Every structure is written in structure tokens, then in C-alpha cells.
Amino acid sequence: MDRVAMLKEILEQAPEDAFARYGLALEYANTGQTAEALREFQNLLTKNPDYVPAYQMGGQTLMTAGRNDEARAMLEKGIECAIRINNGHARSEMEMMLQDLE
Asked: Which CATH number describes the domain made up of 3-101?
């Protein structure tokens, strides 16, 4: 069974599993399925607004797709979240990603 199918199966049993949803989004992003990846990142953030890696990887996915304005907005939200939950490492990484957009 491929990873996407496995993660979808997990999510059928536990739709609130944030880690599985994040994994599914990453799998879609890694296989160039940008729309699907962004949909899963957004689903994850809707239910788990403090899931910092989703902002970071969602922003990276948008950057890869050349959607820089959207990437900037997502990274800015991610930085706000990282500050709120005191995740300095993710904050600095997203700040560097923002610099790459300038």
C-alpha cells in the first residue's frame, strides 16, 4: 500500500489525527500534487490552528508553486503562531523563508 492510501485509511478511522493529516499533506506536496497538499494543510490548520509545521510546509509548498503572495501570508500567520506558542526555531526558519521571498 502506498503512503497516500495508508494515510487516507488512517484518516478514515481517525479524521482528527493531526499527524496523519500533516503526513498526507506532505506526501501530496512531495509528489507535486499542490492543490491536494494545500487543501490538507488548510484542513489541518482549520482544526489545529497552532500546528506550526503546517504553516511552514504550506508556505514552502506555495513558494515551490510560485505563489509567493500566498506563501508570504501563510508564513506570516505561521510566525504569529510560533510566537504565540513560543516555538523560536520554527519562527526563525519561517523568517528566513520570508527573506527568500524578497
From this structure: 1.25.40.10
Q: Where are the domains of the chain?
A: 3-101
Do 37 and 26 meet the contact criterion of CB atoms below 8 Å apart? Answer: yes
Give CA–CA dist 87/32, Å, rounded: 28
Tens of pLDDT, residue by residue over 75-89, are: 999 999 999 999 999
CA–CA separation, 67 vs 63, rounded Å? 6
Per-residue pLDDT, averaged over 28-40, amounts to 96
Residues 6+ apart with CB under 8 A from 81: 49, 50, 52, 55, 87
The C-alpha cell of 41 is what?
494543510
Q: What gap in Å lies between CA 36 and CA 9, rounded to an integer?
A: 16
